[in-house]
Amino acid sequence: MAVDRVRWGILATGGIAAAFTADLVDMADAEVVAVASRTDASAKAFAERFGIPKAYGDWASLAEDADVDIVYVATPHSAHRAAAGMCLEAGRHVLCEKAFTLNSGEAEELVALARRHDRFLMEAMWMYCNPVVRRLKALVDDGVIGDVRTVQADFGLAGPFPPSHRLRDPAQGGGALLDLGVYPVSFAQLLLGEPSDIAARAVLSDEGVDLQTGALLSWESGALASVHCSIHGGTPVAASVTGSKGRIDIPDGFFFADRFVLHRDGREPEEFTAGPTHGPRNSLKHEAAEVMRALRAGETESPLVPLDGTLAVMRTLDTIRDRIGVRYPSETD
Questions:
Q1: pTM of the complete model
Q2: Is 98 annotated as catalytic?
């Protein structure tokens, strides 16, 4: 697929859809041509806000729109399988928000659909596209801190969230793990791959979703990762990677890092910061740019956010939920 401008469709009109669209409309090589919601009113209001020419009150119309090259799926993750699957079946490429799906079974179905239809598919794990996180990974891969021994990462929001909030709703895949815990898990697996063993504990709400979860991931190499997520306690949202020869700390906002500090044995600490062209730390443009690069290159997945890696993260999330006893209404035996 060789095009000058990639034509985007936006499926859903919530906060993350607005943030992504705001960045897209500011990119010279992107064009947002359509938006879809469950209601005409919501779609039209979003279209007017961002100057989008087409507004659909149903998902199918967007999926069938031949003027759309790729659809950004920004619904709650409980609807990702249905929304992304519809778009792939209709021949659209898809960028799908995280958590990718409710479970690994649904994720495998989407990956199989994309491969069957030869369509591009990527989880919107913007952390993996962040230039500072990419630099950190390169240093770790180059052995700058030696063999990785431990990874620590947390993501907690203070809340409180009422029972009516989507984060407390089992039908929408509520709880801390899929909404927030996907980041610490993905960070650990970016550096170490899929763990060989998993232990976890959680505090559950009356509705049966996790208010707070802690997990210990382990690898055959001897490496360990401690990950924590919460929707009833604000945390530093920090990460640290310790190796046999040093340590790297991201002191805050690890999943949209704008700096980290490298500590090496016998040397002064070194700080690495985002470059002047990287934009604000909450920019989603790096993710969008990677998607458009891949589409122009004719690739059906991104080497930065490979589908096998997404599937591995979903399997880890499944195992953690099994350990803590969280199951969603749509899941059957």
A1: 0.96
A2: yes
